[in-house]
Amino acid sequence: MDSLKELDERHRRFVEERHWQKHQSPKNLVMALTGEVGELNELFMWLTTEESWKLTGDKKRAVAEELADVLIYLTRIADEMDIDLVAAAHEKCDLNERKYPVEAFQGNGKRPHEYKNEQE
User: I need a labelling partner for 34 at 20 to 30 A (CA). Which of 56, 73, 74, 107 fits?
Assistant: First the structure.
C-alpha cells in the first residue's frame, strides 16, 4: 500500500466495520484532526530547534504515530467531502509558486510574510 487512495479505502473499511460512519462528519473529523495535531505539537514542545532534528527511538516512533493519525484524519475529511487531496495539494503548490516567485526569494532569506508586506 503506497497511495493515499489505498490508505483512505483501508480506513473507510475500518470505520464501516465498526459502524462509526455516523461520527465521521467533516466537523467531527476536523475536531479530531486538531486534537492529533495538538498531540504532535506536544512531542516537540520545549525542544530546541536542533533537538527537533535529532529525534530517535521511542520519541521518533511517537512522532510517526501522530503524523499517521494526522494523515488518516486528513484523508477521511477529504473523502467525506469528495475532495481529491492530492489534486488539491498540487493546485495549492501551483498557487504558491505564482504567489511566491523564485526570483523574489533566492539568496535573500525572506520569509513569505515579509514578501507579502512589501507588496502591499
Answer: 56
Measured distance CA(65)–CA(70) in Å, rounded: 9
Q: List Cβ neighbours of 1 (8 Å cut-off, separation of 6 or more).
A: 7, 10
Tell me which residue range forms the domain holding 96.
84-120
Same domain for 24 and 66, yes or no, is yes
To 5 degrees, how large is the angle CA 49–CA 50–CA 53? 95
Assign 28 to helix, strand or coil.
Answer: helix
Domain count within the chain:
2
All three cell numbers of 98, joined, read 505564482
Say what the pTM is.
Answer: 0.84
